[in-house]
Amino acid sequence: MSTTTAPHRSVADLLAADRAHVWHPYASATRPGPVRLVERAYGARLVLADDPARPDEPRELVDGMASWWAAIHGYAHPALDAAVAEQLGAMAHVMFGGLTHAPAVRLAERLMDLAPAGLEHVFLADSGSVAVEVALKLAVQHQRGAGRPRRTRMLALRGGYHGDTSGAMSVCDPVGGMHALFPGRLAPQVFAPRPPARGADPAAVTAWIDEVRALARDHSDELAAIVAEPLLQGAGGMHAYPAACLVALRDIADEHGLLLVLDEIATGFGRTGTLFACDAAGVRPDVLCVGKALTGGYLSAAAVLCTREVARTVSDGEGGGLLHGPTFMGNPLSSAVALASLDLLADGTWAADVARIEHGLATGLAPLRDLPGVRDVRTCGAVGVVQLDRPVDVPRATDAAVAAGAWLRPFRDLVYAMPPYVASDAEVATVVAGITAAVTA
């Protein structure tokens, strides 16, 4: 019998099937970790199915992760639901090769209006990792079209994370990333040290800039671009760094004819307090990658924006255009819901929400600095982080957070939260309680 027509199945049955057959991210298929069954979601909340194995757990959890940072407007938002339903009445998908449609055209225009000035061409991709792959191809094809075919390597930052596909992995941190597991599969890139932490001594910032400038000078004949997450390195360690470092990267790229590729997949659309993190530094990249919150967490979509000069050089080169074409690029459903998500951001109330959430996280998490085992507590916009002096016991920390009413997903030595912007003050307090419980567990 088809699973779509099968009769109602118990929670225990579904969880057993999940454990037997479903392979979850960053997890073992043969020794899977515990999962919880979500029945529905609304606002900033996840509603769990009644699990006989966990009778004492809360049925509703405040989602401190915003579905891996994407669901900035929360769940079941009426405007986003309506956008999907309306578009579904016209068409769910159509190929983007040789065809176009209004939602994609309007989305490209809207992104150009919102992004730093001068980014005039938009390539619609289908995930953040793919957007980074496209950006790396753009950089190489640009240098080749400019008569510099030996420039194929990237200057990336230690502590960075840009995705899980091969090209994206190659510019992730070479120690904390997955390089060691795929010897010979990843392009060898040039890595600069992790930038100093935000608030670092100016002398440390100057020393870092000098070191990066020297690296770029020494490798300038083989470098195509500098690749960085602006101001906040996400999954590589939730590390915030000074705007002066980003300004320096722009200057260094210009000095050596490199493209500056900024990965705003995690930081874009308000997460750090400005619409794009690079706005806070007054820096315009040559190539900008966005994703995650682009559709408000409804559908997978991403985009790569670039300057007219980059587009011209690539298009006039030997390939005759950008050599990439995802099957679902420009998907009408994702384009329509992305437009609706950007409409919700247009009134600017998100900025007050992000500031309010930052205040709630900063105030609530500050006492954790005095707990044993805590190395650091930091916030950056609607991001709150507690860094420990040892790796987190993820199952134990997760259980403790859930018991406090919050859904969190710790990793490495970090217990952190990026709640939806619609989270109320009381829900932010629940997230803080969840982090506190996870840390003390």
From TrEMBL:
Catalyzes the transfer of the alpha-amino group from S-adenosyl-L-methionine (SAM) to 7-keto-8-aminopelargonic acid (KAPA) to form 7,8-diaminopelargonic acid (DAPA). It is the only aminotransferase known to utilize SAM as an amino donor. One of its GO terms (biological process) is biotin biosynthetic process. SUPFAM superfamilies: PLP-dependent transferases. It comes from the Bacteria. Its EC number is 2.6.1.62. Homodimer. This is Adenosylmethionine-8-amino-7-oxononanoate aminotransferase. It is an enzyme of class 2 (transferase). The gene is bioA. It catalyses: (8S)-8-amino-7-oxononanoate + S-adenosyl-L-methionine = S-adenosyl-4-methylsulfanyl-2-oxobutanoate + (7R,8S)-7,8-diammoniononanoate. Pyridoxal 5'-phosphate binds at G128, S129, D263, P326, T327. Keywords: Aminotransferase, Biotin biosynthesis, Cytoplasm, Pyridoxal phosphate, S-adenosyl-L-methionine, Transferase. The modification N6-(pyridoxal phosphate)lysine is found at K292. GO terms for cellular component: cytoplasm. Pathway: Cofactor biosynthesis; biotin biosynthesis; 7,8-diaminononanoate from 8-amino-7-oxononanoate (SAM route): step 1/1. GO terms for molecular function: adenosylmethionine-8-amino-7-oxononanoate transaminase activity; pyridoxal phosphate binding. Its cofactor is pyridoxal 5'-phosphate. It holds the Pfam family Aminotran_3. Substrate binds at W68, Y161, K292, G325, R409. It is found in: Cytoplasm. Belongs to the class-III pyridoxal-phosphate-dependent aminotransferase family. BioA subfamily.
